[in-house]
Amino acid sequence: MQIAITGGGGFLASMLVRHLLDNGVAGKPVTRIITIDLVPCPVVDARVESIVADVGDRDVLARAISAQTKAIVHLAAVVSGQAEADFDLGMRVNIDATRVLLEHIRALGTRPRFVFTSSVAAFGGKLPDRVQDDTRALPQSSYGVQKVIGELLVSDYTRKGYVDGITLRVPTISVRPGAPNKAASSFASGIIREPLAGVEAVCPVSAEMRMWLQSPDRAIHNLAHALALDGSLLGNDRTVNLPGLSVSVGTMIDALRIAAGDAVTRLIRFEPDPAIERIVASWPNDFDAVRAKALGFVADEDYVSIVRAHMARIGNASPLTQNPPA
Ligand SMILES: NC(=O)c1ccc[n+]([C@@H]2O[C@H](COP(=O)([O-])OP(=O)(O)OC[C@H]3O[C@@H](n4cnc5c(N)ncnc54)[C@H](O)[C@@H]3O)[C@@H](O)[C@H]2O)c1
């Protein structure tokens, strides 16, 4: 089975590439993965071809995605903070390139599975305490608007029979390994990741700020599930709110204390950033996600397990976590 992944040099894509090479899709081995990104895919494997290019480049798409491509996972994006700061770039990559990509696939006439990732930023304005599956999208940022336009394109290209699409509204991922990124939610990983590495973390929002979160492992599980899912189960409604955990920043820090001890949490400094606070506060922080659960998508058990899984991944590298409490 041949798969194309845009944004293949990014965080979720790199994890997904490894997962698909190891596990295949619905019991079928993945024989070839072609990634397109401005940066190379870090996974070195004979089955992976990493194309370093713009996802909106038609010649590149012609080279990367053919009638043999059974599925496309479209992860390339300008993320929230950057899309807000650079309106033109966000519009060009998040909308224009998505349309170019869908048009290229339409011309193939093969109706492959197309997985797109949207976000909690699709919602905003006056929201119920828990977002329901039919709560209307009312984004309050350029990124959110661009994601909703992507969702609608995926739905309409599916309705017309050009792709077999599914959009996952992915919760904020925490704990994301590596360096901070330009997402407004970057701190939701930084306040765990940096202290565990012995580095001070700045938290730009208050301890009361509540967020809708998912671990990287669950996100990858859910993306792989979306690749394998029978499209007829989705009917005409191709956008799915993924399950997640509703957690306050204070609870996240408590979980870090439970998993790694007090000294680590002292490396977190609160320094309000009104711009970030405004964006993050506009996002919903709790969902019912009834439909997603019925379709087999999953959430994490609790935030302490998320912190522990991150610590296991980095191998308890910080001197501050030599003897974390059990
Ligand atoms: N991580 C999260 O918390 C989260 C939550 C909801 C949705 N998402 C969505 O999931 C997807 C993957 O997220 P991520 O966290 O791995 O982000 P990421 O920033 O690590 O990856 C995105 C990749 O897109 C690439 N890219 C940007 N512009 C491009 C262009 N013009 N051409 C080709 N590649 C380009 C970047 O180089 C980057 O490697 C994104 O679409 C994001 O909006 C992420």
- Portion of residues in helices? 25-40%
β-strand number: 12
CATH superfamily of the largest domain: NAD(P)-binding Rossmann-like Domain
- How far apart lie the N and C ends? 43 Å
What is the helix tally? 12
Largest sheet: 7 strands, parallel
Query: Strand portion, in percent?
Result: 15-25%
Find the CATH topology of the largest domain.
Rossmann fold
Mean pLDDT: 95
CATH level-two architecture of the largest domain:
3-Layer(aba) Sandwich
Q: Which stretches are poorly predicted, pLDDT < 50 over at least 5 residues?
A: 317-326
* Element string (H = helix, E = strand): EHEEHEHHEHEEHEEHEEHHEHHH
CATH class of the largest domain: Alpha Beta
Number of domains: 2
What radius of gyration results from the CA coordinates?
19 Å
Query: Which structural class is indicated by helix and strand composition?
Result: alpha/beta
Query: Given the C-alpha coordinates, what overall shape results?
Result: globular
Bound small molecules, by name, code or SMILES, are:
nicotinamide-adenine-dinucleotide
Please give a structural write-up.
By secondary structure, the protein is α/β, with parallel strands linked by helices. The protein folds into 2 domains: 2-171 and 214-241, NAD(P)-binding Rossmann-like Domain (Rossmann fold, 3-Layer(aba) Sandwich), CATH 3.40.50.720; 187-212 and 244-286 and 301-321, UDP-galactose 4-epimerase, domain 1. 40% of the residues lie in helices and 17% in strands. It contains 12 helices and 12 strands. It has helices at residues 11-23, 58-64, 80-85, 87-108, 142-159, 187-196, 216-228, 249-260, 262-265, 274-281, 290-294, 303-314, and strands at 2-6, 32-37, 48-52, 69-74, 113-119, 164-170, 172-173, 201-203, 210-214, 239-241, 245-248, 268-270. The strands form 3 sheets. Strands 3-2-1-4-5-6-10 form a 7-stranded parallel beta sheet, with helices on both faces. It has a 3-stranded mixed beta sheet with strand order 7-9-11. Strand 1, helix 1 and strand 2 (32-37) form a beta-alpha-beta unit. Helix 6 (187-196) runs parallel beside helix 8 (249-260) and helix 8 (249-260) packs across helix 12 (303-314). The chain starts with a strand and ends in a 12-residue tail after the last helix. The model is unreliable at 317-326 (pLDDT under 50). The protein binds nicotinamide-adenine-dinucleotide. Nicotinamide-adenine-dinucleotide binds at residues 7, 9-13, 36-39, 54-55, 75-79, 93, 97, 117, 119, 170, 172-173, 181, 185. Residues 7, 9-13, 36-39, 54-55, 75-79, 93, 97, 117, 119, 170, 172-173, 181, 185 line the site of nicotinamide-adenine-dinucleotide.
